Amino acid sequence: MLEAHDITVRFDERNVLDRVSITVADGEVVALLGPSGVGKSTLLRVIAGLLVADAGTVSLDGVDITRWASHRRNIGLVFQDEQLFPHLTVAGNVGFGLRMRRTPHPELHRRVQELLALVGLSGFDDRAVGGLSGGEAKRVALARSLAPRPRVLLLDEPLTGLDRDLHDRLATDLAALLRSTGTSALLVTHDRDEAATIADRTIMLAS
Amino acid sequence: MAGRVERDRAALNRLPRWAVPALAALPAGGLALFFAYPVGTLLTRVLRPGSVTDVLRAPGLAGVLWFTVWQAVVSTVLTLVVGFAPAYVLARYRFTGRRAVLAAVTVPFMLPTVVVGAAFVALLPANWHGTARAVVAAHVFFNIAVVVRLLGSMWAVVPEGITAAARTLGASPWHLLRHVVLPLLRPGLWASATVVFLFTFTSFGTVRLLGGPAHATLEVEIARRATQLGDVDGAAVLSVLQLLVLGAVVWWSSRFQRRTAVQLPGARSLRRARSREQRRLVGTVAAVATIVMATPLVVMVSRSFRLGGRWSMAAWRTLGHTEVRPGVSLGVDPLASLFVSLRFAALAALLSVVIGALAALAIGSARRHGRLLDVGLMLPLGTSAVTIGLGILIAFDTAPIDWRAKWWLIPVGHALVATPFVVRALVPVLRAIPAEQRNAAAVLGASPWRAWWAVDVRRISAPLVGAVGLAAAISLGEFGATTFLTRSGRETLPIAIARLLTRAGETPRAQGFALATMLLVATALIIVIAERRVFGEGSVLDARGA
């Protein structure tokens, strides 16, 4: 279970987050809704360890991880703009987290194939990420984050910038994917329909 | 806001505090020992009582100063005038063969000065040799690339809408140029003028080969005093004088450029020539520019195959001989110089790439003091090669550090000249990496070191290969610093070329052209390959517009 407790973040003397608390149970998918500028992404960055909060704690399965570096948390993050590594192939991107965990090669290869199949990109292994379409890039980013089996997956508006059709299709796929892998997830979005499609529970973050 | 956040609060995923100092240690140490210490030694020589006034009262110095200044001014003005049309055509028009013309115009700038000097020795009639005209002609040829690149990059973004607006308001082509285009281009004009002035003011190789004994620039005079007259103090005073002049010009010019800076919103867009006049203009300028730029080099290559008025391979065949006739020494072993140069280039490339990469990574990872190292490493670039050579010569010639006879001083000097270019090739690549890439690596389980390795180090590995070539090319052609450090029997290619070309007799001259041809081919090849690598086309980052 992921618990963020009383998180406060100040930028330039202004409270972006003021004592925000949130919990995500095992296998639960929670959507975080709210207008832009309300600090949704900031909260994700605090949970992922990319940002140090001014106050508050983050704990995972009862262990306080507030001061842990990101790479020790085993919390995945799907970035809004994917942040694929341009110098690596699709397979190189998907296998990155496994390499960081020193996964033996045969298992790494098998897992990468499994993930590519899961997101519908079998056969894309050696493609350069620069040549992917918007939807394909999002799928690769998702596969990359899921590959190391993170304890919790954070999704920062993972479907923005797609046309309506593709958006809806990917939203359904994503919901199925999270269910089938039993991944706990926290999804940031400003789209109510998307939240309803993907999440078990929705939280509104007001300014 | 994200940028601020990264700096102030990403404390959990940072490299340890000692990382940047550890990376910077070798570059900073090398810079201190082989640049700061020699230049410092040079300064203390100058500060001895009486030395300055003695030197400045020396006869002939006024003539040297006057020649240095006027040839630089004339060369600069002529380069701007001659480079104007190709800069315009290459910046504004798309046409078949544009890349080839661009290469023909810009590659000479990256060639060793000795090759350009040799090309003009081959091209110009005998009664031009040893004249100021010859020096100015070679300078214009050499520096047109600066105008095409610097002025061209400004011209490329002058929006067409502005010129169209002026035309609808009744501006004739002349009015358009005078009242709209030139004012917009002024920063580019000043930038090009400054760079060309600095290059021609400190010109060494070209003047050495073409100016003859009557025409010496400050650089040539410094070398003459130090290596021929043994007047090291005098040479030191002159090189400090030159440093002061260069500093003043750079300061004044950057101030002036800031004042005249204009914000141009336009994005770069090339168009096809539409009207008949436009087509004629583009065709003429492209053809003339290519012919003018290629001719000296073609003539030089062909002259290496001519002896006694006939075509002959003799000069090439005898490159391995050290005697003109039995018993008459040539004074230099042409073929051996090639191998000396290759060996030095390999070592200099290795040194400058290792040091340059460490420095670039330190600059890229530093949160605060990166700029200091960045500026420090650029200083050798702003110091003339002759000054660097002289500094090393006088700093390491007595105890405690007596390295006078050490052969490796030459590749170290070359590395000092080449490292700033390596750093300049790598730092922008590192700066262009979004901080989110390191964050993405971190949330995927990469420790700070592994994230740094996977993102930063991996990203510079491709441009690094290009940087090796760039450094090797610089070392192959380096002439100024080598003049001071060279020892008989270990001449590099440029030194051998200069010796051969200043000797009497047709055969040594043809041999000089043959060596210059080899140097030309080697450098041009490296440049073409390296440019692809360093400023590679179709990089993934560009393609995705990141």
Index terms:
heterodimer; A: about 210 residues; Rossmann fold; 2 domains; five-stranded parallel beta sheet; four-stranded antiparallel beta sheet; 7 helices; 9 strands; B: about 550 residues; MetI-like fold; 8 strands; disordered N terminus
Description:
Helices cover 34% and strands 25% of the residues of chain A. Chain A contains seven helices and nine strands. A five-stranded parallel β-sheet of chain A has the order 6-7-8-3-9, sandwiched between helices. In chain A, a hairpin with a 2-residue loop joins strand 1 and strand 2. Chain B is mainly alpha-helical. In chain B, the strands form four sheets. Chain B has a two-stranded parallel sheet with strand order 1-2. In chain B, strands 3-4 form a two-stranded antiparallel sheet. In chain B, helix 2 packs across helix 12, helix 6 crosses helix 23 and helix 15 runs antiparallel to helix 20. Chain B is globular and about 70 Å long. Chains A and B meet through strand 6 and helix 3 of A and helix 1, helix 19, helix 20 and helix 24 of B.
Brief characterization of the structure:
The complex is a heterodimer of chains A (207) and B (546). Chain A is an alpha/beta fold.
Strand content of chain B: under 5%
SS-derived structural category of chain A: alpha/beta
Number of domains of chain B: 2
Multimeric state: heterodimer
Could you say how many structural domains of chain A there are in total? 2
How would you characterize the largest beta sheet of chain A?
5 strands, parallel
Give the overall pLDDT of chain A as a whole number: 91
C-alpha geometry of chain A: globular
Give the proportion of residues in helices of chain B: over 70%
Strand order in the largest sheet of chain A: 6-7-8-3-9
Biggest β-sheet of chain B, characterized?
Answer: 2 strands, parallel
